[in-house]
Design brief:
Largest interface: A-B, 47 and 47 residues
Order of helices and strands of chain A: HHHHHHHHHHH
Number of helices of chain A: 11
Number of strands of chain A: 0
Oligomer: homodimer
Helix content of chain A: over 70%
Radius of gyration of chain A: 21 Å
Strand content of chain A: under 5%
Shape of chain A: elongated
Structural class of chain A: mainly alpha
Chain lengths: 204, 204
């Protein structure tokens, strides 16, 4: 009997996580609006009523997927670089890590955050937007600090932050793992482009 | 009688254009998948059968909207700058014009092209993708030409082209006409950032 008690049924937490994973895969492939709650239930081997035991609503499911994507982002990008003293090195490390988060296939939750940017409403939208804004502020503050310390020339911190974000986040639209560029080439190329600039070649 | 014959009913072309405009507004606001063909018909004061007199299918309607958006883009951006001799000036003018196309509210067709990038399938997708690829090639060729002429330092033309596109096209996600930055400030700031680079301030 001891052996069979070890083979337990999945805990409610594990079950919830598996449902989120399945829903994220469907929404990532087809888009939120085109994915029905019935279809999510079927993919999870549940009835619609059974699915509603785990999730309150389709919008709530999207909020949970996005929250999990923001957890991933904060864990694998933001918290890894926030402690770097030099603001330029901090921004470069942040760009490299964020690009990898976008290019590696397992980050479907991150793709959903990027693509479904206007899908949530009310309190759910405010919750996710507040976490996104924290990232924008972090970038703006780092650019501002780099200017103040004379490490980069004077630029508008907001334009710089959104240029950084555009370069990095647009990647989900065009990058293919089997394409001509590796994600490391994209990361190194973009870091070089933004931080070294596009100055004329000076013949010595 | 002469006066009344002048007040004609809209031509089929004008009617088709009005339907495209209405559908584009709905799809831009709610997303393609969430917009029903019934809803489009109602907004056009037509029955569903009446709407199908003008459009073959919802997907075909999307293709027509995107084709019109690409027409707008080619007319207001690409054809305006292709003739500029200096590749750096060509790229700068292109960036300024493309940013304006994204920020001005009337370009809902352009927003739809940007957001619904994976919605079309088969021949329709190939048609739009070929026009998008033409733009990517134009940017890559211009960057390559600028490197070859020694006008900018050596960079990967593909990374540069997609960095340009990311900066410019991501704008539809965050820019608000009533925000702290005008679209001219964004355009000038991004041109400065990408083309002048981010070199350290050198104290003379």
């Amino acid at each position: 009997m001891a052996a069979s008690t070890k083979k337990q049924r999945p805990t409610p937490e594990a079950r919830s996580r598996a449902i989120l994973e399945t829903a994220a895969r469907l929404i990532c492939d087809k888009g939120y609006a085109a994915t029905g709650i019935q279809e999510i239930a079927e993919a999870c081997d549940l009835t619609k009523a059974g699915l509603y035991h785990y999730v309150q609503s389709k919008e709530n499911l999207l909020l949970e997927i996005m929250s999990y994507g923001m957890d991933l982002f904060e864990e694998q990008v933001l918290s890894q670089v926030e402690g770097i003293e030099d603001p330029v090195e901090r921004l470069k490390a942040c760009m490299a890590k964020n690009i990898r988060l976008v290019t590696r296939g397992w980050s479907k939750e991150v793709t959903i955050i990027l693509h479904e940017h206007a899908t949530l409403h009310g309190a759910a939208a405010r919750k996710i937007n507040a976490r996104k804004k924290r990232y924008v502020r972090f970038l703006e503050d780092s650019f501002r600090e780099a200017v103040e310390k004379g490490l980069i020339r004077e630029v508008d911190a907001t334009v710089a932050a959104f240029s950084f974000l555009g370069m990095v986040l647009w990647i989900y639209k065009w990058f293919r793992p089997d394409g001509q560029l590796t994600d490391d080439q994209v990361a190194n190329g973009m870091i070089d482009l933004l931080f070294k600039g596009l100055e004329p070649v000076r013949v010595p």
